[in-house]
Design brief:
The longest helix is centred in the first third of the chain and has 71 residues, at 63-133. β9 (573-578) and β10 (581-586) form a beta hairpin. The strands form two sheets. The chain has a six-stranded mixed beta sheet, sandwiched between helices. Strands 2-1-4-5 form a four-stranded antiparallel beta sheet, covered by helices on one side. The protein is elongated. The chain has 21 helices and ten strands. 29% of the residues are buried. It is α/β, with parallel strands linked by helices. The chain is 63% helix and 10% strand. It has helices at 2-11, 15-37, 39-46, 63-133, 136-140, 144-186, 188-208, 212-235, 237-242, 246-272, 274-298, 305-346, 409-415, 439-444, 460-464, 473-482, 486-490, 509-523, 539-553, 588-594, 597-605, and strands spanning 367-376, 384-394, 398-403, 424-429, 432-433, 446-450, 527-531, 557-561, 573-578, 581-586. The protein has two domains: 2-346, Up-down Bundle (ABC transporter transmembrane region fold), CATH 1.20.1560; 367-605, P-loop containing nucleotide triphosphate hydrolases (Rossmann fold), CATH 3.40.50.300.
């Protein structure tokens, strides 16, 4: 139940709307009760089953006194205007009561809407905002499709079940309590019997729905895997077609979909069982009450036939709220399973944190230093990706990192903006450990251009100005010109306001890369990280991009990761990585003369 209370925490800030919902629900139940209670004494008086009450009784708030006073008013109306006129007025009153009952029901739902929608909005915001703060290491262990399922399907399930349950737990208990109170006034003995029967019914329903939460958790996990397959298929559709892997993907998708079918079929069967089971149990209770109450009437044990009829009419009003409550009990099991999956994200550890009073670093002044840095991803083997790295990068220098795949080059630069934190040692900027700086300030020092062009399904303008405030169109245009992107942007249908499609799919590889360079130019960072920025381009695109990068690097401290060694011969220092360690270092001429690892890499690329 802990997760239920956490969900209620999102409802708490809408307490004023919730109070209004409760208020109008109370009025709904009260008017519903009056519309039922008035019928029996009126008909008894109208058709002469009981004598008219001619003497005005003393008014009080006791049930018996209220009933007698009501009979007096009805008797006065019948006596003054006759039976037919009284019947007409009574019908009008009943219609008015039902009108107000439904009006108050609408108002109760009206004030519930902001509670329901607001709580779900806040929950979805919490999940998304948490996803933005989680470290990259979290996503290496999770399926992207499963995360998407939690933000969409699981949040929707919480809305459909738990938030609905909150509504029902306010409305239906009010119905049950008020009607039970009315029944108690008519016959305490028979009401006690009804209460015991309702407890037995609730126990049976609870036992039947016990396994629904476990099945729901399994179904949501399978849904996440299904979304992952769809996401991977759409991302890699070109490879699927190129390798004739359509049948393989169909079988993979079909297998998971069949598993989802099986578990949802069992869940639906069990959930749909709640309605007929509740109805059957309710009729069993009705038959038991009929027998027990009828026996009391026949044996003349403090229960009149008219009172018993009235009791059964009021009791019939308990069946619907009891049925709704039991159905909601089934649904909340499923909702709690989804809530657990959501809270697994919200409770995930944020390993990249700031100290209590972080330092500000508005500019980069002197140098970057790796001091005895070691790092491991803490995966199954705990293998060190970096081992005792010591390196200083002075301001304005160009440093190139080279080496075979897996040598630790990308990891080295990922540690700088704290995508990960070092396992041992420290990284210092201007003599201070980067963990002491405010995270937003630290990351503001860096501009990144990676091998994969990370673009968003938006306009050219918004992709270049991504994350930056107060940017003018002139500044965006100037950045595009420096990145050799202005010419092709101008030829697009809507220029800078053209949509580039999902992941920039409407553009060529070189065009996408030049947009990412324009984004880095506009940010104007003091430190630039280039991670294989030209390795996936053709010769013509590479030249355009390389020219753009040369413009970008002017006057900046630059760290270049490169496999094409011809692109980094100009570097002030080349760091050769091997097995997470610095194997060689120096400039291009000096390393080539050593006839070591770097020389072998140069010779391999010469062919």
């Amino acid at each position: 139940m802990k997760n239920l209370f956490r969900i209620l925490g999102y409802v708490r800030q809408y307490a004023s709307f919730a109070v209004l919902n409760v208020f109008f629900n109370v009025l709904t139940v009260v008017f519903s009760l009056f519309s039922v209670v008035m019928i029996i004494p009126f008909l008894q008086l109208l058709f002469g089953k009981i004598p008219l009450v001619m003497q005005q009784p003393e008014f009080s708030l006791k049930a018996e006194a209220l009933l007698e006073y009501f009979k007096y008013l009805l008797s006065a109306e019948i006596n003054a205007n006759g039976q037919l006129a009284a019947l007409i007025k009574f019908c009008i009153v009943i219609a008015a009561l039902f009108f107000f009952k439904n009006l108050f029901r609408f108002l109760a739902l009206y004030f519930l809407a902001p509670v329901r929608s607001g709580a779900v909005r806040d929950l979805r915001n919490s999940v998304y905002f948490k996803l933005l703060t989680l470290p990259l290491s979290y996503y290496s262990k999770e399926r992207k499709g499963d995360i998407i399922a939690r933000v969409t399907d699981d949040v929707k399930e919480v809305e459909n079940s738990i938030i609905s349950f909150i509504e029902i737990t306010v409305r239906e208990p009010l119905n049950i309590v008020i009607y039970l109170a009315a029944l108690l006034m008519l016959s305490p003995q028979l009401t006690g019997f009804v209460f015991i029967m309702l407890l037995i019914t609730g126990f049976i329903i609870g036992r039947v729905g016990k396994s629904l939460k476990r099945q729901s958790t399994e179904a949501q996990n399978i849904t996440g895997r299904l979304i992952s397959i769809v996401d991977e298929t759409l991302s890699g559709l070109r490879i699927v077609h190129a390798f004739n892997a359509e049948d393989f993907m169909r079988k993979q998708f079909g297998k998971i979909n069949q598993q989802l079918y099986g578990i949802t079929w069992r869940m639906t069967t069990r959930r749909e069982l709640s309605s007929p089971l509740t109805e059957f149990l309710a009729m069993c209770v009705v038959c038991s009450v009929l027998y027990f109450g009828g026996k009391l009437v026949i044996d003349h044990k403090n229960l009149e036939a008219e009172t018993f009829i009235g009791f059964m009419v009021l009791f019939s009003q308990l069946i619907a709220p009891s049925k709704n409550f039991s159905s909601a009990f089934y649904n909340i099991r499923k909702g709690l399973a989804s809530a657990q999956r959501i809270f697994d994200i919200l409770d995930a550890e944020v390993k990249i944190t700031e100290q209590e009073s972080p330092f500000s670093i508005p500019e980069f002044k002197t140098e970057i230093e790796y001091r005895n840095v070691s790092f491991a991803y803490n995966n199954f083997d705990n293998k060190k990706i970096l081992d005792n790295i010591n390196l200083k990068i002075g301001k304005g220098r160009v440093i190139a990192l080279v080496g075979q795949s897996g040598a630790g080059k990308t990891t080295m630069v990922d540690l700088l903006p704290r995508f990960y934190d070092v396992s041992e040692g420290a990284i210092l900027i201007d003599g201070t450990d980067i963990r002491a700086y405010r995270l937003s300030d630290l990351r503001g020092l860096f501009g990144m251009v990676s091998q994969e062009s990370i673009l968003f399904n938006d306009t050219v303008y918004n992709n270049i100005a991504f994350g930056m405030k107060g940017v003018t169109e002139e500044q965006v245009t100037e950045a595009a010109k420096i990145a050799n992107a202005h010419d092709f942007i101008s030829k697009l249908e809507n220029g800078y306001h053209s949509s580039i499609g999902d992941r920039g799919g409407k553009l060529s590889g070189g065009e996408r890369q030049r947009l990412t360079i324009a984004r880095a130019v506009l940010k104007n960072p003091p430190i630039l990280i280039l991670d294989e920025a030209t390795s996936s381009l053709d010769s013509n695109s590479e030249k355009l991009v390389q020219d753009a990068l040369t413009n970008l690097m002017k006057g900046r401290t630059t760290i270049v990761i490169a496999h094409r060694l011809s692109t980094i011969q100009f570097a002030d220092e080349i760091i050769v990585m091997q097995d997470g360690k610095i194997a060689e270092r120096g400039n291009h001429i000096g390393l080539t003369a050593k006839n070591g690892i770097y020389k072998r890499l140069v010779d391999l690329q010469a062919f």
